[in-house]
Amino acid sequence: MVEFIFRVRDDLPEDGYSLGDLEVLGNSGSVTTRGLEHPDQRMMVYPSAVALLSEARLLASRGKGNGRFEGFGSMFVVEFSLQKGRVATRHGNRVIDSTPLPEFLCAIRDSVESLHRHGVGAIEGGHKVLNAMEKEMDSFELWRTSVSFNA
Known about the structure:
Blueprint: E1 3-8, E2 19-26, E3 29-32, E4 43-44, H1 45-62, E5 65-70, E6 77-83, E7 86-91, E8 94-100, H2 101-122, H3 128-146
C-alpha cells in the first residue's frame, strides 16, 4: 500500500507555512523531496497536505482518470491514475504503487492527520492553518465514509 509522509524541515518555531519534505513509499518504489536541493524541492507542508487531500477527493469523485499533486512552493510532482478501482501513484515514469482506491484514500487521510498532530504540538501562536486543515480533514472523512466506490 502507498504511504505519504510529510516532515517539517524548518527550524523551530514552526508556523503554518513551514517548509519540509514529502516521502512517498510503495510496493514498487519510493521517492522523496529530501536532498533535492538544486533546485530546492522543499514545500510548504501544511498547505501541501491539504492540497493532496483535495486532489485525492477530486480523483475519487471522478471515478477514473488522472490526478496531479504539486507541493506548494515546490516543483515536486506526484501523479495518480485511477482505473478499475485502483490508483497508480507515479513520479515521472516511475510507478511507486498501485493501491485499491479505499486504501489509497485512507493513506492520504492518515498522512494528513499525522502532520496535523505534529503541528498541534509544534506550531506556536496562531493556528489558522491548523484550523483550516482540521476543517478539510473533517470534510474529507465525512465524504469518504458516506460514499461507496465500485471497481
